[in-house]
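Folds vary. Our protein:
___
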Amino acid sequence: MAMKRVLIAALFPALVALPAAAAPAPAALVEAGERSPALPPIRNARERAMTENRILAERLDTIIPAIMREQRIDLWLLVAREYFEEPVVASMLDAEHMHARRRTILIFYDPGEGQPIERLTVSRYGLGGLFAPAWDPSKQPDQWKAVADIINQRNPAKIAINTSDLYQFADGMTLSQYEKFVAALPAPLHARIVSGEALAIRWLETRTPAEMAIYPTLIRTAHKLIGEAFSRSVITPGVTTAEQVQWWYRDRLLQLGLEPWFHPSVAIQRKGAKGMLEGNEVILPGDLLWTDFGITYLRLNTDMQHLGYVLKPGESKAPAGLRQGLANSNRVQDMLTRHFALGRSGNEVLALTRAEAAAAGLDASIYSHPIGLHGHGAGPSIGFWDNQKADPRGNGLIAANTAWSIELTTFASVPEWDGQRVDFRAEENAFFDGTNVRYIDGRQTEITLIPSGQ
């Protein structure tokens, strides 16, 4: 059956029905060494579960009614199978249900006239009291027939299912499950099936006040670990390799009971050497270090890139050309965040920022993205490292109460390195409240210094 398609640009209006998330106060990111931020306490398993369940309940109570009414969808059907959970269903499982069981089917129904949204689970097992059980297999053995009966009784004008050519987050309905669903659904209701793409994106991208209350803890934790990695406690110049620092991150996270959502990156730029040096390359005095590091904690994600410099004997700061390179990247970050506006697409923000950077004589590459329940999160992209022009994934409109990885780089010739072209990558996590963009735990504005010990 052909699905009705909606113009991408119309899919993402501002979520005005939600209360604004509490924007964290701007913080000044301190550097490595004695000024390094303290590591926040890491919660135990039960504390984490209680926090995750509290936040999930709030999200279901506030976001679901807002986005269903915003998109004028009165029934949303979600389907997942054990160990094959689609992204939206996975984000709706309580902390004790780590996976869907057998086939888990969730139904949201808006009866209209301001009445509460019905949250139903058509499955053999309940879901932490967040969804009302709606299937008794002893009375109706056919699960799909039970789903069809629920839908038929409610007679919705639109039945949203997660299908999307563009966004993986909104493409959770597999062909086999779709065929079984349609076979059970009365034929007159088939024409009412629409894509739930906008619902899926809006659900995943929206941050609540409770999430923003804990997000600074996550980011401060990641900042602290980067500070440890770029210090003499981890790096011995002339001995430690880039690869060893990568695996130090992994071991340190194991010690803390935390997880990375990608394998950490560490690389070296060096005077007279071409490109990034990685793997078993030994870190030396005079090297510019780069790291890309992200953790998952309390269901939220961090993603950041920092620069470090290994001091040569007698040096007390990085060469001026390297310091200017980071300042250039900070400047482009400012341009980028200044162009955030409700109703503006990711592609528009990209074009405006690139034009401003070029006018300022800065050689920039921008590839920022939403962050939250996923590291590379749902929502409109702002450029890609391999595509600095408009992209279909950037057509979506920027919404309020969203978190972002402000990720980009600038390139500059460094006089102290005989004019060598150096890559100054920067990435920090920020929150857009609908008016302003604020860094959740500050950003790097000075290159982290690592003593050579000589």
In short: Residues 204-450 form a domain with the Creatine Amidinohydrolase fold (CATH 3.90.230.10). The two ends are 71 Å apart (CA to CA).
